[in-house]
Backbone:
């Protein structure tokens, strides 16, 4: 959260990649009445208010309770995986398929989704930088540490990633790293 993965994905899209955004799909999943019904049944009806997921209450619950987080993931993640697979299949079948497909996935390693990827990219920044970015866009900077605690240690993610972007500098520095990443990813495609 706040590392810049969506910024990097958007920069890759400007270069010709199609981006499948797992966060966007997860929000769509929680608009599905069947998903909402399961959340209300398994995690509590107080999380669904007027037919909509109370995201704040849900976040507070799942980042304080590992069992609740796993239950929510068991409901939402299969929906997201199916929607992402459908999007990727549609892209592949289009008359002009994209140069590459980029999956913007916040819990890639945690959910074992890296196994199906040609390459993985980790975008990282120090916790204080990420918290500051989250606060700048109106989010809860204190929530960054809680979300980190619910994920694999960053050292493990760094070791597993094929490519690493350290996004702790200027926009110019980030753009240079993205240009190098794009060139490397294009080489993988040839």
Residues:
């Amino acid at each position: 959260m706040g590392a810049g993965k969506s910024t990097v994905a958007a920069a890759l899209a400007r270069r010709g990649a199609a981006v499948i955004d797992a966060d966007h799909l997860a929000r769509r999943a929680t608009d599905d009445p069947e998903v909402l019904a399961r959340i209300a049944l398994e995690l509590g009806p107080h999380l669904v208010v007027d037919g909509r997921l109370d995201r704040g209450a849900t976040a507070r619950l799942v980042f304080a309770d590992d069992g609740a987080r796993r239950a929510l993931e068991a409901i939402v993640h299969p929906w997201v995986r199916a929607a992402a697979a459908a999007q990727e299949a549609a892209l592949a079948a289009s008359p002009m398929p994209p140069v590459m497909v980029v999956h913007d996935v916040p819990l890639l390693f945690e959910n074992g989704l890296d196994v199906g990827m040609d390459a993985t990219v980790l975008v990282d920044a120090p916790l204080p930088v990420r918290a500051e970015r989250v606060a700048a866009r109106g989010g809860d900077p204190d929530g960054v540490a809680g979300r980190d605690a619910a994920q694999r240690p960053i050292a493990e993610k760094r070791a597993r990633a094929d490519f690493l972007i350290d996004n702790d500098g200027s926009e110019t520095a980030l753009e240079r790293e993205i240009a190098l990443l794009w060139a490397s990813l294009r080489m993988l495609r040839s």
Q: What stands out?
A: Strands lie at 17-21, 48-49, 52-53, 100-104, 121-124, 163-166. DSSP finds nine helices and six strands in the chain.
